[in-house]
Specification:
Length: 430
């Protein structure tokens, strides 16, 4: 039999069809009862009436529980008042398994309880919508880069060297030595960029983040483009086009999901390049004008990011940072040695940093000096330094945190709901 999915129900209006799925909800009005069937692609109301079904099927009303797995056969009918605009007039129901005491009812539950049942919670309407948008974000990242001449070059998860500082590394036993879980694929992408010109890596990144915030996970996903012969301005041009295309593709393809989440999309519609670009110094002035508890020279905290981003109606890029708060590999501004050519993109509506990146130091001697200054072991960076010995070029790149941009696009407060199975200091299960 041809497989049918509820998302395609409009194609078979008037015909008999069979759908596999799960019971989302049931409701009775005496001679008929209704069942909301979900199959992962959509939800549809099924109408069970005693004159169209056997007694056995009609009596399932008393036994079918939420999340039981069933197959429904019936006639598809247009019905404007029903979710999705169609109904199934049921002829038969086959029960595969009756779910017993499903722990998540359609009522409210606390987040900690729901997180303990994350493996089931992902079936619920809101979580389904968030993860659908996550899928669209990832797809549009790939589509944009693939359509713009980038080559995907994977980078390793086990690494010997730190990319983003040594304070939040995860150590793992690696035979007779130890290794770190990658914090970022960047250093390897710099090698790939010298082979392919424009590359990206896309994978999980790990940080032993000791701070419990709504923006930090210990395992998150990052897409990192890296481009040879791009300076900081070229990098910012790319970053804003990239983010515009991701947001617009979600608006175009995830209307139902954004609706389910009751997302006010007016801010998202304004996300069109160019984005405002301000220097760190200008951002620091905004903070002091707004009475923020911030001292010049530091990295921005969550509240600082919120204050800065609230001044604008679209994402903004903050560039030229005090070198002391940025990674060893950042190139310095030739007009002011104290500034690094880094850029952070801050999302509007208080969502804070979604992108971190910049132009890389391309001079061998300077880079060696920086590695030393940062207390890193030059031995670990032998291969990386080779890139400055053999055809070094100006180059730049950035990393976009998938969960951060999904949180913003979906309008979800806490990043933990933007990944199927979140990992935080206090959560390794399910
Ligand atoms: O700013 P970060 O640390 O930059 C890098 O890792 C660079 N090596 C990237 C590059 O230039 N190729 O991280 C980049 C982005 C952040 O802007 C944020 O969106 C996300 O990764 N991110 C996290 N997301 C969730 N949980 C965490 N603990 C995160 N740390 C960073
Ligand atoms: Mg950063």
């Amino acid at each position: 039999m041809e497989k049918r999915f509820l998302s395609d129900i409009s194609e078979i209006e008037g015909k008999e069809a069979t759908f596999d799925g799960w019971v989302y909800n049931t409701r009775s009005i005496g001679k008929i009862w209704f069942l909301i069937l979900r199959d992962g692609t959509a939800m549809t109301q099924c109408v069970v009436s005693s004159d169209k079904t056997s007694d056995n099927v009609f009596n399932l009303e008393n036994t079918l529980t939420q999340e039981s797995s069933i197959t429904v056969t019936g006639i598809v009918k247009e019905e404007q008042r029903s979710i999705g605009g169609y109904e199934i007039l049921v002829e038969n129901i086959v029960v595969h398994q009756l779910a017993q005491d499903y722990p998540i009812s359609l009522k409210e539950h606390g987040t900690s309880f729901l997180m303990d049942y994350r493996h089931l919670w992902i079936r619920s309407k809101r979580q389904h919508a968030i993860l659908k948008i996550r899928h669209q974000v990832i797809k549009s990242c790939r589509d944009f880069l693939d359509n713009n001449g980038f080559t995907l070059v994977d980078t390793p998860i086990f690494t010997a060297n730190a990319c983003e500082g040594t304070s939040n590394l995860f150590n793992v036993d690696y035979f007779d030595r130890s290794a770190y879980l990658t914090q970022s694929g960047q250093l390897y992408s710099e090698a790939s960029a010298a082979s392919f010109g424009k590359v990206y890596c896309f994978g999980p990144a790990f940080r032993a983040e000791k701070s419990k915030t709504r923006r930090h996970l210990t395992e998150f996903w990052m897409v990192e483009p890296e481009m040879a012969y791009y300076d900081l301005d070229d990098n910012m041009d790319l970053a804003e086009q990239f983010v515009e295309s991701i947001v617009q593709s979600c608006l175009n393809n995830c209307e139902n999901e954004l609706d389910t989440l009751e997302r006010d999309t007016s801010f998202l519609e304004k996300v069109k390049a160019p984005f405002p670009r301000i220097t760190y110094d200008e951002a620091a002035k905004i903070l002091s004008n707004n009475g923020a508890d911030f001292s010049y020279g530091n990295d921005f905290g969550g509240t600082d990011e919120t204050i800065i981003s609230e001044q604008y109606d679209r994402p903004i890029m903050v560039h030229r940072w005090p070198a002391d708060v940025k990674a060893f590999y950042m190139k310095r501004d030739n007009k002011n040695e104290k500034l690094a050519l880094g850029v952070d993109m801050l999302a509007p509506e208080g969502y804070g940093e979604i992108i971190g990146g910049g132009q890389r130091e391309d001079d061998l001697e300077i880079l060696e000096k920086r590695i030393e200054e940062h207390g890193l072991d030059k031995k670990d960076f032998k291969w990386y330094l080779d890139l400055r010995k053999y055809g070094s070029v100006p180059h730049s790149g950035f990393g976009l945190g998938i969960e951060r941009i999904v949180a913003w696009i979906t309008g979800i407060k806490h990043i933990r709901e933007t990944i199927p199975f979140p990992r935080t200091i206090s959560r390794l299960e399910p």
